[in-house]
Amino acid sequence: MSPKPGKKNLLTPEGYQELVQELEYLTTVRRREIAELIRQAKSDGDVMENAAYEEAKVEQAFLEGRIKTLENLLRNAVVVADEERASDGTVTFGSTVTVQAPDGERPETYQLVGSAEADPGAGRISVESPLGKALLGHKAGDEVVVETPGGLMRFRILRCE
Q1: Helix, strand or coil for residue 1?
Q2: What is the tens place of the pLDDT at every residue in 115-135?
Q3: Residue boundaries of the structural domains of the chain
Q4: Which of 32-36, 41-45, 74-78, 80-84 has the lowest mean pLDDT?
């Protein structure tokens, strides 16, 4: 995911710190490791037909792309601290929300985060996702309607922290 240049990227304090640490690791440790792989591959002779060299160069290109993405994300980051969130039980950025579909499925709990931190498998959904957008501004007990490719789905908010 490449953020749009200049677009403000909402991040939780934890998400911001994770991105800073990833950038630090990539620019200090990983860059050196890939440079060493390239140096070793070059020392093996002709680089024109050297698979190890080609693989290291591709890896280097991906690394540099990720570094640029992280730098842009952090340059345009807006960190939303816990103290800045609504304290009246309203779903806002950073809230942890438990919802249940009316068909009786097991309740699901999500934290609403920015797109840079979204990881649905880990329970973090973007405030820009259909469900994230629908939940914003509501409270426990409210029912929200989400438009999905399969049609409209209704969710009841069980809890908001």
Answers
A1: coil
A2: 999 999 999 999 999 999 999
A3: 9-79, 83-160
A4: 80-84
Structure tokens at 79: 């960190």
- In whole angstroms, what is the distance from residue 137 CA to residue 58 CA? 45
**Residue 109 three-state SS:** strand
Over the stretch 66-89, which tens digit does the pLDDT of each residue have? 999 999 999 999 998 776 666 678
CB 78 within 8 A of CB 16: no
CATH 1.10.287.180 corresponds to the domain 9-79: yes
- State CA 29 to chain mean position distance: 22
Overall CATH class of domain 83-160: alpha beta
Let me know: does 112 contact 94? Beta carbons within 8 Å: yes
Q: Which of 64, 78, 68 is nearest to 15 (CA)?
A: 78
Task: Enumerate residues 6+ apart whose C-beta is below 8 A from 89.
Answer: 139, 140, 160
Q: Which two tokens stand for residue 127?
A: 């405030």
- E-assigned strand segments in the chain: 9-11, 77-79, 96-100, 108-113, 124-126, 143-148, 151-160
pTM attached to this predicted model: 0.77
